[in-house]
Design a protein that fits this description.
about 325 residues, alpha/beta, 6-stranded mixed sheet, 5-stranded antiparallel sheet, 10 helices, disordered N terminus
Amino acid sequence: RRSALTAMQAAQWKKVLLMGKSNAGKTSMRSIIFANYIARETTRLGYTQDVEHSHVRFLGNLVLNLWDCGGQEAYMESYFESQRDHIFRNVAVLIYVFDVESRQMKKDIQYFSMCIEALKANSDKFKVFCLVHKMDLVPADVRANVFAKQEGIVRDIVGDLDVTCFQTSIWDETLYRAWSQIVYSLIPNVAQLESKLSIFCNGCGADEVVIFERATFLVIAHSTRKAYADVHRFEKVSNIIKQFKLSCTKSHAEFRSMQVCNSKFRALIDAFTPTTYIMVVSSSSTALPTAITVNIANARDFFEKQLQMWNEPQ
């Protein structure tokens, strides 16, 4: 019975390594996404000492076991020597953060390469995400070239391994875009979730429906029936609503729902399941807010049961 319980816990918990050289911005982004910091507050954060562990629950059964690894050289060396098996065993995701303005980029690249080798030796299946961070400090006209160069170096190192690279900054929506896609990759049965969401979207006559994780407001699923030019729209909404929620908290109020409308569209954001919020966007003049609210209420129990079922360990 004990071994069965251990297997269940392993199936539900996903070990995530957050690594990179000291001052790359790892703890700042973790604090913004998971600890409700705003960007300007991260200046008071100190350096991470060795490894800081945190457990973040998503959708009930999915738990991110986040290892924020200090990037000082002494710590990095210990990860690859005395702590190698402990750090790199049973890893689901490696998130490696490159400081785009680092004066020791060769050392950063060397450490990243050592991470990949250690993971190959200690973890069977893992995903790799690289964040080229602090891109707001790079002039806009050369940003694409700087990112492409770093991405090319990363791909040369990982070889046949699948890797996804993002350019990020704590000052805009790029950070939410990166972390939303990382979490999205870990959600079991997400295709089934989006299939059901598509049925709901069609039934509502909506242009788009998005589900956000309740605490972080990261995007976990969406269904879209209309083309939009802005590919960063979800992350912009995440950023805006997260800031608004923090303002509500400071005023001792609880954020429950929000409605935005003009002559072209209506968007309703509402609490959905115990672990999610939902956003329904419609450009139809016949889409009354009362009808949208009723549809959300009617779908709430169904999606709550589905999320619990889909996130059961296989």
